[in-house]
Amino acid sequence: MAMATSSAPLLPKPALRAASSSSLHAPNPRSRRQRATPEQHDQHVDSKWRRQPRGPPRRDEGAKRRLRSLIQREEIDDALALVDSMASGGSGKCLPVVPCNILIKRLCSVGRVADAERVFAALGSSATVVTYNTMVNGYCRAGRIEDAHRLISGMPFPPDTFTFTFNPLIRALCVRGRVPDALAVFDDMLHRGCSPSVVTYSILLDATCKASGYRQAMVLLLLDEMRAKGCEPASRT
């Protein structure tokens, strides 16, 4: 005698409906995109430019958080003292780059270039192209053109990454009427394999048009070279 197979569901129909409804409407933990915290953002930027050591000592983490907090509260002197303390204690490689870049910019903006140099030196090989650009801007604002040129010459980055670092130096030379020196820096920039931007050409064109002793031929030469490099002059240019 054959046994009758039951096609009845293991769960009653109301229970099945509830189970299917809950599975359809249950929140997916991966469906919501979480925003990165400021600390996660800083860590991402730091790791983009330098290889971080595995498992940094916990004592450095507290100092990093304190440094970020001091800079956010504009307590510049205390932040500078903490950087000096971390550097002298052998924790220079663990300095957070992004807050240090902000500290360098703040110090340069109030004319404390020597203190900015201390932070730059404390970063050492951890300095990024943004760090160099900030320091170059600080030198140029303080009129220390030769120091800016020296710093650019020693940058350990591929040429294409610091085109925008040359612009403050070229602008500073042009503002001071040193157009031949600005053109020499521009020539050095090309020899290094850097691709000038529209901003670079605009600075030089404006300076050569205003300076005496430069004829229309120089302006036309710059415009021709600008187009050859794929930079179309803007309306302001």
UniProtKB/TrEMBL annotation:
It comes from the Eukaryota. Residues 36-49 have a biased composition (Basic and acidic residues). Keywords: Repeat, Transit peptide. The keyword Cell wall biogenesis/degradation does not apply. GO terms for molecular function: mRNA binding. Residues 1-27 have a biased composition (Low complexity). InterPro entries: PPR_rpt, TPR-like_helical_dom_sf. PPR repeats lie at residues 128-158, 162-196, 197-233. Residues 1-68 are annotated as: Disordered. This is Pentatricopeptide repeat-containing protein. It comes from Miscanthus lutarioriparius.
